[in-house]
Amino acid sequence: MAVATIATRRKVWTDEALEALPKDGHKYELLDGGLIMSPVHANHGTICMRMALLIGNFVQRHKLGEVYDSSTGFRLSDKLLLSPDVSFASHATLKKILIAPDKFLYGAPDLVIEVLSPSDRMVQINRKLDHYFEHGTKLAWLVNWPKEQVHLYTSDSIEALTRPNDVLIGGKVLPGFKCKLSQIFGR
Question: pTM of the predicted model, to two decimals?
Fold first, then answer.
C-alpha cells in the first residue's frame, strides 16, 4: 500500500472525474477528499498476487463471493474512494454494494488486505482501516512483507502473526480458510 504524496484536492470528486484520470500505471484513491496515488515495488506486487490467489481459489471453490485486486474502487462516501490491495466481498455484501458491474462498488468489502511498502505511514494506514470498519468491513489483514508478518484487525482487536508456521485464518468472513505465513512469504 505504498502511498505517494497527495496529488490534488477538489471539493468533490465525481466517479466520472476519477475514471477520467490518466492510465499512467498509478493506483488512485480518494482519502478524506484528497487524491492520492500509489506506485508499488516488485515485492509488493508478488505478495498481493499470492494473497489474491490464496483467497481467490478458496472463495471460488466454496462459491462465497468475489475477490478484487487493487484496481477496484470502493466508494465509501463523497470524500472516500479506496482500493485495497486485495479484497473480498461476500454474495450478501455484493447485493448491497454492487450498483452495476461497470461502476465502483458503493460500500466496503468484508475483507481488506493491505500490503505495506517502505513509504507507507501508519497514520494514513490507520485512517484507511478506520474508514473501512466504519463502513462495514469485518476483517482486515495488514501484511508487512519486509518483516514477514501479518496483523489481523477486527473492529475491536488486533492479532500479530510473526512466525513462518503461524496460520492465517479467515474467521467468520472466510470460514475454513487457513494458510501458513510461509505460503505467503515464499519460504
Answer: 0.82
